[in-house]
Design goal:
The protein is an alpha+beta fold and 161 residues long. It is built from three helices and six strands.
Length: 161
């Protein structure tokens, strides 16, 4: 999973798929508020689904439970976390980085774009990663779920399928 040292605003998204997910999320916004959980259906844009994870926020950000993890996202994460807590992830380093990124979104109530390098000991090691973490709210405006999409760029600059 990518280093999260470079958290930036959504305007810095380069990857067309990450931009597509972000634009869809922006289109669901209600005025100045964030989209409702009930307004977001990943299957409305099924081509995005393999690259998307949905995580419920537990106890204000003490942990996160993955409601859905796309197949490509699971490959990057190194395991399918569907139905599991982030705190139970096998790769503690990845879990710690994701916890910090998710915590930043919950704490600041601001979506983020993440740029970084994958640090793993396999064929994904050293690849550039771009991700977006986008909040969804309940009826009273509290952030209750996160959309997380990620895509990798090969060493020759192409976005991986």
């Amino acid at each position: 999973m990518a280093s999260i040292d470079n958290l930036v605003s959504l305007e810095h998204i380069e990857c067309p798929l990450v931009r597509d997910v972000s634009d869809h999320w922006l289109g669901l916004r209600n005025g100045d508020g964030y989209p409702l959980i009930s307004d977001y259906d990943v299957m409305q844009h099924h081509h995005q689904a393999p690259w998307v994870a949905l995580a419920d926020i537990i106890d204000g950000g003490a942990d996160y439970r993955y409601r859905l993890v796309g197949t490509k996202y699971a490959r990057i994460l190194g395991e399918d976390m569907t139905g599991k807590l982030l705190g139970d992830a096998k790769n503690r380093d990845v879990a710690g980085r994701l916890n910090r990124a998710y915590g930043k979104v919950v704490e600041t109530m601001t979506p983020v774009c993440i740029h970084g390098r994958v640090g793993r000991s396999d064929d994904l090691d050293g690849l550039h990663a771009e991700a977006a973490v986008l909040p969804l709210v309940d009826g009273d405006g509290s952030i209750k779920r996160l959309i997380h999409t990620i895509r990798l760029r090969t060493k020759d600059g192409a976005w991986m399928n």
